[in-house]
Amino acid sequence: PKPQNPEVMMMMMILLIVNKLLIWFKMVEEDDSKWEDQEAEIETLKCIFDEDEFTIKKDKPYNFEILLNSNTESEERNYLKLKLIFDLPESYPDEIPYFRIKNLSPDYIDNNAIDSFENEMRERANESLGQMMIFELADLLKEKITTINETVLEKLYQIEEAQSIKNANTETLK
Questions:
Q1: Is the peptide bond prior to 6 cis by the omega test (within 30 degrees of 0)?
Q2: Would you give the DSSP letter of residue 53?
Q3: Which of 2, 34, 154, 158 is the least buried, fewest Cβ under 10 Å from its Cβ?
Q4: Counting beta carbons within 10 angstroms of the beta carbon of residue 66, is it exposed (0 to 12), middle (13 to 18) or buried (19 or more)?
Q5: Neighbours of 137 (CB within 10 A)
Q6: How high is the pLDDT of residue 13?
Q7: How confident is the model at residue 1 (pLDDT cuts 50, 70, 90)?
């Protein structure tokens, strides 16, 4: 083989390094662009939920939690609380996010209800493939526990009313 000119060798090395850098920059750029949709959704969720309701545990791939309360007006009337824990795969929203529901109200909600909620959320996630869906899934679950909570509160009110009437009748008879 013919010996290479040192200047040519140096130029080839520089070109090789530049080529490697360009490939690396392109990979970094592609890596950042694949997270853009997820970052936009995370920013939206930060605006929707209070700081104590939305907690990011890990960035890229994203892991976060959303605390759901059945009644945000009054803590005494808030019997049902759940925590949604999400792990977003790199291909989200073209792939369903991994999620689970942590039951913070085991006295009121049993595991069968949690399983049912998770199944409904998976169905909704399948219908929403290709779209940002985290808020929609959280809202679906919040609606469920709010409806249950309102039913419980209505029954408590009826029991209190009946007890109040009974007490009034007892007082009248004395």
A1: no
A2: T
A3: 2
A4: buried
A5: 21
A6: 67
A7: very low
> What Cα–Cα distance (Å) separates residue 78 from each residue in 23, 40, 111, 143, 151?
54, 31, 19, 13, 12
Q: Looking at residue 166, what is its pLDDT?
A: 77
As separate numbers, helices (DSSP H) first and strands (DSSP E) second, the chain gives: 4, 4
Q: Residue type for 167, please?
A: N
Q: Residue 58 gets which letter from DSSP?
A: E
User: How many whole angstroms separate alpha carbon 136 and alpha carbon 124?
Assistant: 8
- Give the residue carrying structure tokens 């977003």: 88
> Over 90: is that where the pLDDT of 163 sits?
no
Q: How far is CA 86 from CA 2, 76, 135, 172, in A?
A: 61, 28, 11, 58
The side-by-side arrangement of strands in the sheet containing 98-103 is 54-58, 63-69, 81-87, 98-103
Task: Tell me, yes or no, if the pTM score tops 0.70.
Answer: yes
How many CB atoms within 10 Å of residue 115?
Answer: 11
